[in-house]
Design goal:
With 226 residues, this protein is of the alpha/beta class. The protein contains eight helices and five strands. The chain has a five-stranded mixed sheet with strand order 3-2-1-4-5, sandwiched between helices. Strand 4, helix 5 and strand 5 form a beta-alpha-beta unit. The model is unreliable at 1-19 (pLDDT under 50).
């Protein structure tokens, strides 16, 4: 997947101070933002299967603007006894038992995800990771349920803090639906590819970067001491 430096044209870059050093570890009080999307077989995090998960980390450039960095993506086998709502899989178009998905056991996926994020978090010198998602409570509840289900203690994620791009988009763009927010931000969005965890995570990450970068170019961060 190609990563792009979002919302940073030459006029925006010229506004960044050449004497300012920007550190990701300082931007969110030590939190390391991780954009996540899950595709599921229902709405109940305790009973319904996770079918796909994607996570994208971000990097902060020398000019103070954010861009996409590393991508984690896996298809997930329903955990033993998981509920699968017919309406949910008809909506997202996922066949949970299709061998061609290359799905891995849920425990294996989430252990690998945590290892991947801990490594990136450490490299950024951050203290804890925080989930960024569109309607973040939904994705966070499924991640938390999976971690608890498999007794994964070394989770990098804060258990309840999250950054919700729904609220941020409502504030900055006047939109709450992901596709509408992307359109308002002039981010290309192909509706035919929606409801893929990888695609939706990528677009959510682009949207989050756009909002952060726009705020930065308007002089909102770093906050002035005067």
């Amino acid at each position: 997947m190609n990563n792009s430096n979002l919302g940073t044209d030459s006029s925006q870059k010229s506004q960044a101070s050449n004497n300012t050093s920007f550190q990701l570890s300082e931007r969110f009080r030590g939190y390391f933002p991780v954009v996540i999307d899950v595709e599921t077989a229902g709405f109940n995090a305790d009973t319904d299967a996770i079918l796909e998960i994607a996570a994208i980390t971000l990097k902060l450039g020398e000019d103070g603007t954010f861009s996409l960095d590393q991508t984690f993506h896996e298809h997930v086998q329903p955990f033993e006894g998981a509920n699968i709502e017919k309406a949910a899989i008809e909506f997202n178009g996922i066949d949970p038992f299709c061998a061609l998905r290359g799905a891995l056991p849920e425990e294996e996926v989430f252990k690998a995800l945590c290892k991947h994020i801990r490594k990136a978090q450490k490299a950024a010198e951050c203290q804890r990771s925080v989930i960024v998602a569109h309607n973040a409570h939904f994705d966070q509840s499924f991640v938390n349920a999976a971690l608890e289900r498999h007794g994964i203690k070394r989770s990098p994620f804060h258990p309840f803090v999250s950054f919700d791009t729904t609220s941020l988009a409502a504030l900055s763009l006047g939109q709450t639906v992901l596709v509408k927010a992307c359109e308002a931000a002039e981010i290309d969005f192909q509706q035919s590819q929606a409801h893929s965890a990888l695609y939706d995570t990528h677009k959510t990450a682009e949207l989050f970067c756009h909002i952060l970068n726009k705020y930065h170019t308007l002089g909102g961060w770093p906050l002035s001491s005067t």
